[in-house]
What does this fold into?
Amino acid sequence: MGITLTHKILESHLISGRLIEGEEIGIKIDQTLTQDATGTMTYLEFEAIGIDRVRTELSVSYIDHNILQTDFRNADDHRYLLTVAKRYGIWFSKPGNGICHQVHLERFAKPGKTLLGSDSHTPTAGGCGMLAIGAGGLDVAMAMAGEPFYLKMPKIIGIYLYKNLKPWVSARDVALYIISKLTVKGGFGKILEYFGPGIKNLTVPERATICNLGTETGATTSIFPSDEITLSWLKAQNRENDFLYLMPDPDANYDEVIEIDLSKIEPLCACPSSPDNVRKVQEEAGKPVAQVIIGSCANSSLRDLLIVAKVLEKYKIHPDVSFEINPGSLQVLENLVYLSAFKSILQGGTRLNQSGCLGCIGMGQAPPTNSISLRTFTRNFPGRSGTNPDFIYLVSPETAVASAIKGVITDPRELGDYPKIEIPEKFIINDSLLIPPLPEEKAKKIEIIRGPNIIPLPPFDPLPEILEGIFLLKVKDNITTDDIMPAGAQILPLRSNLPAISEFVYKNIDPEFFKKALEIKNKGLAVGIVGGENYGQGSSREHAALAPRYLGVRIKLAKSFARIHRSNLINFGILPLVFKNKKDYDKIKAGDHFAVYNLKESLLRGKKEIEIEIKGKEKILAISELSMREIKCILKGSRLNLACSS
Ligand code: MIC
Ligand code: SF4
It folds into this structure.
């Protein structure tokens, strides 16, 4: 049997373990990326490791999330990140240059290489044949220090695409179709590898859209082969030397194959308030919309905006709709201008913003009360838009512009002939906002500048012998890291100030969480949290582990965990245990006292079953699915302590 594309890349990067499903493997990371919201913490951690210069082939620090400078804090973070980049041999992408994933695809993604990014949508680069994985900041810091990235060997799911998309149906609809089949947890422990004749008509940015949104299934990553389409993308970027032809073997052995007839896919939308709440656009048609935004790392490429521009040559935006565009990158913006596509966009009634994440992470663009907002973004988790409650639909650029024109949710096929767009063979390349690393001698002399809001990491104490405490909160299935550690323009500027951001942990679920947790911690007890399935889905933000840890959380007991959040918990010494019997979830109440005896000994002996005593109730059995490396990390109190002691 032949091997998959994923296996080919993993084999050439394998440092430890065997490529057997479920076994822990360590892989070499060629490239890293960070963005500013997770980056400040990542670089504080990198500094704590004490390495003189990054040990990757390439590392890039992007500024795209916290780009509103309403006071000194975000601006100080940008300056800190610039000086860190200069000091340690890292590329720096200035604010305004674009969203990390879009810019990385344009300027750095290389077929056959590995990329680790402190952002969950890092798999976007899979559109260019790269094995690109999202992780917590500490894992990225370790990769920059030349350490392997550890993960459980996922299952490889082959997604066989055949036939062609119908007019007005695009990559977003394919992605939504897949999310509707897999749900927000169906991709857990899996890599989605695309193949088949249907990929021939998907350009690299379209492939990137599909890989980007694979994240919303919980998949480890998604990847397309590198073929002549990849080559034409790299040529257009003046990077043909980065090309490598890379295909799965024709008889590649996938753990499972999903077949998708592209011609059967219709315009789809993810209804409020989960990316897997997918319905046909037709079923939602006619509902009035107040706001429509084209943007985010999923759908704001040149291809996407050219479609919008073409449509607006014929139509104008409805007077009741705020139609907004956040171009994916400076390159997208500049090429639009050069191709004169900009004229119809501006004359059609568009509110144009700078390149960046903006409303996708609640940095502005909050919709009005009780109104529908359509977005080409990645996530519509409740309240993420900044308005609570909100009514956010995720759609393709085609559906977005059609609805903005009609003022109601509209199936784009109503607009008649599908416009033809021409993608230039060569893009205008402008790297003026992309600062290359300094040579070593110069770099050593750079002074790192920190503002008053940048607070060094606290020490992380080891796991106590007896873990005794209170389960302070019990939450339901699919809790997101946005629920645990909300984002938005108020909270994001605190990403480099752990004591301050901790006050917002679980704020929208229990506004008193922070106070109650500190009371428990100050009594010398541990704080515990009980969760349902897929606990911690969504963002890679390690603040969703770090901040609870700061408040004394030492154990999370859930039905199952999302991959990145689980790793982040382990990295910061929080014990993630799963119920042996899921029905036991019903037996625990918030406020219950718990104790786990002989924890250290049990873990070190490799005991899988851990007994949790609940005061006044019968014992509960939990399962530790930890590897020995992970156990050591938890016992030490954090992966940083482990790295610094070895
Ligand atoms: C997101 O889309 O949720 C983010 C903001 O990009 C996060 C990272 C963060 O919280 O800073 C992600 O996807 O990892
Ligand atoms: Fe930025 Fe949104 Fe993409 Fe996250 S999902 S990187 S916030 S554009």
Q: What stands out?
A: Residues 72-88 form the longest helix (17 residues). The two ends are 41 Å apart (CA to CA). Residues 467-645 form a domain with the Aconitase; domain 4 fold (CATH 3.20.19.10).
